[in-house]
Amino acid sequence: MSSKIKQFLSAVRYQQWYRGQIYAVVEEPGREAVYASLEPPLPKPIERYLSAKGIQLYRHQAEVCEKVRQGLNVVLTTPTASGKSLAFSLPVLEALLSDMAATALYLYPLKALAYDQLKTLRALEDGTGIRLHSAVYDGDTPKEERATIRRRSRLILSNPHAFHQYLSWHKLWKQFLRNLRFVIIDEAHWYRGVYGSNVAFFIRRLRRVLDYYGSDPQFILASATMADPLEHARKLVGKDFVLISADGSSRGKKTYVLWDAGAHPSRSEHRQAADLFAFCVSQGFQTLCFTASRKMAELTARWAGAEVEGVAAYRAGYLPEERRRLERDLKQCHLKGIAATNALELGVDIGGLDAVVIAGWPGTVASFRQQSGRAGRSGQESLVVQVFFNSPLDGYLLRNYRYIFDAPSEQAVISLDNEHILKNHLKCAAEELPLTQVDEKWFGPAYASAVKALVGEGELTVVRTGTGSHQKTSNAEIYVRPRGSAAQEVKLSPFEEGEFKVVCDGEILEVIDRRRALLEAHPGAIFLHQAEPYRIKELDLTRGIVLVEPAPGDLYTTTLSETEVVVKEVLGCRHLGRVELAWGKVAVSEKVYAYLVKRFDRVVAKEDVRGIPPIEFETIAVWCRIVVPPSLGGSLAGGLHAAEHALIAVTPLMAMCDRWDVGGYSTAHGPGGKPNIFIYDGFSGGTGIAERLYRCYGELAARALELVSGCNCQDGCPRCIMSPKCGNNNEPLDKKMCLHLLGIVSRDAAGPRES
């Protein structure tokens, strides 16, 4: 451990806000690099460039080159800062050097990543003399440059959101697409849930258009470590892959400080994270503080900024030029610290930070490792402070902290069975090329029924039956899109749908999605932008505008809401003794009815909310009906509510998601007249999480029981059954009844086969 980190550990204990919160200190040793050579070697221009830069190939980089040379699709899963970009770029450059017509497409989940990689690729071009005219092509690309890029560039960087829009204009891209040799998908673990399912169908549409032009490129995926990356790659792309996961890169020493915010209950956990952020900066560590929400990124920057200079907030929603300025200032050390959402979890080049503070468990082991990896990217010894909040999952992981270092990463869930998503992409596909029966090979077994439904809804039209189509099939019905631009209507991310502009004195501060507007932008709410508070004056649902005005003080607001769930269709059922477990389609309604005004964590007022429509959607849920013995005392409603919280709290241990990706609902008199607990996918059509929970519900219940029984509190606390996202203000809750119910479910989990 370096003297600087030792000094930090000593000095932090003398701060006025320290109350013994350091629960454990874990040291991770450094590691020497493992190198490998290629046979035959890379082309001379590339070899000379690497030699001039003093770059030797790590073992995994050489393995990627070898597999790509063999014509295989590759998924590379190594940690942050292990040289994944160079690993996939070298074989691409080699192939494009040998075939002067070949092209490559790089896809990134964030625009900032594409611009980062563009700098690296242009340096490679300059250093090797290979002229690919690499360029970014996305919504920010000036219109006057687009035709030149399409005609001249052999390596184009973009993102799924943008290329999803461009597919219907594929004739403008035919030269590039006809010669496409490689598709690179970086940060592939990012594509999960609804977003991942949408991107999976977008990639199938891309492959369908490429097939039309006679192109079948190799795919190279780069990802953080995750469970079953081969299955994830297959679902995402629809092809078979080989896996390279043995990391050959060097690693600097890392010290993890596990901080128990609950040891100082009189000081807000968020304030403690801000204290640590400011203290790290004051000790000379250039620091990145990860927060769980946009609001907390703003507040953390505001609180820390009152103690030290040179800190700022960074999150999605800022205008592009503002984000890039912050990235540049951080990389050039003009900023000493930045409070961010997970928008900076990915590989944006912001230099070699000295320390990372993670405010609350980030949701998954994979995210913890990604966020921790932002410190020490330049190989220096680094510091990570993981602040565990007063929440059930945080408390569970703190007590079992070896889990976060030793457990494998979670599985990224992608559902290809979401009919809503499939139909959206079939509308897009029909605009790109007429649909025929052979397109089932791209879109799966639900293709025919989805097309039939779209015809019935007037979204597709049968134009003729007989011989001929773009696939040269016979006796096929041809389906086309009769109107509109489907790609403009269909959003890949659920958070893109229904944008609202936040406006103050005629200036657009940022853009938020409809869901966030309905949940947070009610009149009277406090809205934060760049750590400055604004009070919402008006929510205009018709024009998509949120009018705000500057607000004084340290106030912020949280909402109270009520949820209803109605079962529409049962897709599977198992009888497990006193428990009936089922999954299926449900209709969900969430409505905000009030909000709490808070100063720090203290409630200072409660106000009713009127005139805000509910959020309504159909999705997939898993639910259990429990036969409760009459002898059990206590509040059944409180026990069910507490069990619902506990089950949702441990859901991230079963699937790569966080607690915000699922919702819950419990009732003492649900379907069948029995007590019911529902866990539902938080987005229309489902994400695959609820179905996965149905398959492993026994383990889920056992983990929830372990969580609640392992907490020493008497009646329930934020570390076991209270939830920070509860729309009912954590009322009612009954810990003893919760333990009884979870005991019944976990004991009866091994039951008969599915019916």
From TrEMBL:
Gene3D superfamilies: P-loop containing nucleotide triphosphate hydrolases (3.40.50.300)
Record GO biological process: interstrand cross-link repair; nucleotide-excision repair
Listed GO MF terms: 3'-5' DNA helicase activity; ATP binding; nucleic acid binding
Residues covered by the Helicase C-terminal domain: 272-420
Matches recorded under PANTHER family: ATP-DEPENDENT HELICASE HRQ1
Tagged with keyword ATP-binding: yes
Residue ranges constituting the Helicase ATP-binding domain according to the UniProt record: 65-244
Protein's recorded name: DEAD/DEAH box helicase domain-containing protein
Source species of the chain: Thermanaeromonas toyohensis ToBE
Keywords: ATP-binding, Helicase, Hydrolase, Nucleotide-binding
